[in-house]
Amino acid sequence: MDDFYKKILDNNKEWVEKALEKDPNYFADLAKGQTPPLLWIGCSDSRVPANEIIGAKPGEVFVHRNIANMVVHSDMNMLSVLDYAVNVLKVKHVIVCGHYGCGGIKAAMGNQSIGIIDNWIRHIKDVYRLHSVYLDSIFNETDRFNTFVEINVKEQVFDLAKTSIVQNAWKKEQDLTLHGWVYGLNSGFVTDLDVNMSSNQELDEVYQLSF
């Protein structure tokens, strides 16, 4: 057993002990069920932990993560998580959170083949194609990279709003608001991209004004 693997097992024991010192019923209460108010759709990047970024406790955030925080309408994993979050857990907020320095976004800006992930990157490339005139007009590569990260988050929020799951929730006047954030790896702060919407009317208005 290598040192890292042993260390994480030891860390688990230490975490349990500290949690029980603060609250002897901590895990017993968690086991009773979950009622998180938030679904987080984020990137798989190990540097972007949903709970820690927003100071949330276990049980407060339902999480789905994939490369570059994509909302792909044929992704049954994402759709299953979304359906459960909206229709069973009745979350009130869904946050799509991207991050500056995202490797998936960077890969989509180039033409190098990486492997099987190329098939996933294709979805991100489609977003670039939609905004290529604007993005290509940004000559500074870092600025273009950061702008693409932001645009991709906005497009994923729009795609999220168009899913039948969200559409049906809004038709039933369910309390559900979508948000788009970007997390700064070098600062720790999140930026709200102001694509908050809770109805089809807001979807139409925001889409017209965003780009």
UniProtKB/TrEMBL annotation:
A Pfam family reported for this protein in Swiss-Prot or TrEMBL: Pro_CA
InterPro entries: Carbonic_anhydrase, Carbonic_anhydrase_CS, Carbonic_anhydrase_sf
Alphabetical list of SMART domains matching this protein: Pro_CA (SM00947)
Family annotation (PROSITE patterns): PROK_CO2_ANHYDRASE_1
Keywords assigned: Lyase, Metal-binding, Zinc
Cofactor: Zn(2+)
EC numbers: 4.2.1.1
Catalytic activity: hydrogencarbonate + H(+) = CO2 + H2O
Gene3D superfamilies: Carbonic anhydrase
Entry-linked PANTHER family: CARBONIC ANHYDRASE
The family this protein is said to belong to: Belongs to the beta-class carbonic anhydrase family.
Protein name, entry field: carbonic anhydrase
Organism name: Flavobacterium pokkalii
